[in-house]
Amino acid sequence: MSRSDPRCRSCGAALTRTLVDLGEQPLANAYLTDAQLSAGREPSYPLHARVCDTCWLVQVDDVVPPEAIFTEYAYFSSYSDSWVEHSRRYCKQVIDRLGLDHQSLVIEVASNDGYLLRHFVDEGVPVLGVEPAANVAEVARAAGVPTEVRFFGWECAADLVDRGQTADLVVANNVLAHVPDLDDFIRGLAGAMKPGGALTIEVPHLLRMLERVEFDTIYHEHFSYFSLLAACHALKTRGLRVFDVEELSTHGGSMRLWIGLDATCPFEKTEAVDSIIEAERTAGLDQANAYAAFAGRVEHARASLRGFLVDAREAGKRVAAYGAAAKGNTLLNSCHVTTSDVAYVVDRNPHKQGQYLPGSHLPILEPDHVRRDRPDYLLILPWNLREEITEQMADVHEWGCRFVVAIPEVEVLA
After folding, report:
1. What is the spatial distance between Cα 214 and Cα 207, in angstroms, rounded to a whole number?
2. 3-state SS string over the chain?
3. Is residue 71 predicted with pLDDT exceeding 80?
4. CA–CA distance from 196 to each of 169, 264, 270, 279 (Å)?
5. Which of 40, 156, 219, 412 is most buried, by the most CB atoms less than 10 A from its CB?
6. What's the rounded Cα separation, in Å, for the pair 410 and 394?
7. Half-sphere exposure (CA, 13 Å, Cβ side) for 160?
8. pLDDT tens across 73-122, in order?
9. pLDDT tens-digit map of 322-340
10. How are strands ordered across the β-sheet holding 45-51?
11. Whether pLDDT at 392 is above 90
């Protein structure tokens, strides 16, 4: 997408409407080593979300190629217990619904460290992961999940078909938003499916993002933000049909789309599809006015966090953070947070520990550091995991530390 003449990556229409402009920011997953921090060279790029007035897809400019983001990746899904459990439940559900067995094949696109496919392996269902990050794919292979290191698209799908690897089920969870070339990617999904097969996609729901002011989920690695209206348009024009939708609590409110090939889909459309589309139309997501107030609500959220941090500092209180999450980096950098505001961040992922957050340069430490340091507040950056984190770190209450979340505005938890 050219910044001088931005065009919708789904339908090609000119993009003239801004949702929110978050200024220049570093890549949200570009964690820094000591050497990189000392070198002082940290690139930043425009983070500008726009709305397509034709198909209503929300999107940011693809200022950085995927190869610069996903070839070596710091996100490992298995470090979230709740996410692994979510995936286990999905596995059981889809095996029962589609009747998958040892003669089936499940292909997962952007399969990460095998957090999901390992549940199919345990049930005796053959699987194949396709994952562009070599470091992450190696973890999956070590766990017994066959994984190919490559980017997925039409060329990859055609290669799989030539090798006789077409899928009864294709899984694309939390990857559609990460794709700059929707046409190539979606055609690849369709090409990898057997006739009569199914595709499931999990994607954050734009309706919930707007309602809950989840602006921190906007970052360069998230190229697109989907309503069901926009998703159905993108899929239908490329030969796919949504036959069912589930609303999920994950990532602040997501959708699980159940999809078949338009020409051979054996599944009847459920009432849920029309129900969610009607809810989106009622909320005005097919009209420009629905998007107009978002930037002002974002500024209110940013001011709320800045005000809390100023008050804490003036009161002599120390603030630390939990979760070196990409969404947290958008939040911190949008609010110009530094180590004078938040001392450090802790994270369970050892691949992130010992590095620094992009932009804010908070050092990433292991969670037990909180117990030694005893800050007054612990700001939960991945607010979608607040229950899991408050349970894991419940002992911080022993010295009077309190948890804080910042979206949609600052809330100090009891």
Report:
1. 10
2. CCCCCCECCCCCCECCEEEEEEEEECCCCCCECHHHHHHCCCCCEEEEEEECCCCCCEEECCCCCCHHHHCCCCCCHHHCHHHHHHHHHHHHHHHHHHCCCCCCCEEEECCCCCCCHHHHHHCCCCEEEEECCHHHHHHHHHCCCCEEECCCCHHHHHHHHHCCCCEEEEEEECCHHHCCCHHHHHHHHHHCEEEEEEEEEEEEEHHHHHHCCCHHHCCCCCCEEECHHHHHHHHHCCCEEEEEEEEECHHHCEEEEEEEECCCCCCCCCHHHHHHHHHHHHCCCCCHHHHCCHHHHHHHHHHHHHHHHHHHHHCCCCEEEECCCHHHHHHHHHCCCCCCCCCCEECCCCCCCCCECCCCCCEEECCHHHHHHCCCEEEECCHHHHHHHHHHCHHHHHHCCEEEECCCCCEECC
3. no
4. 10, 5, 17, 29
5. 219
6. 20
7. 30
8. 555 555 567 778 888 999 999 999 999 999 999 999 999 989 899 999 99
9. 999 999 999 999 999 999 9
10. 17-25, 45-51, 58-60, 224-225
11. yes
* pLDDT confidence of residue 69: 57
Average pLDDT over residues 5-23: 95
| Alpha carbons 280 and 332: distance in angstroms, whole number | 30
Q: Which residue has tokens 């000119």? A: 14
pTM as predicted: 0.90
* Single-letter code of the amino acid located at 20: V
Amino acid at site 220: H
Max Cα separation, the chain? 66
Tokens of 272: 């849920």
Q: What token pair was written down for 133?
A: 């990050």
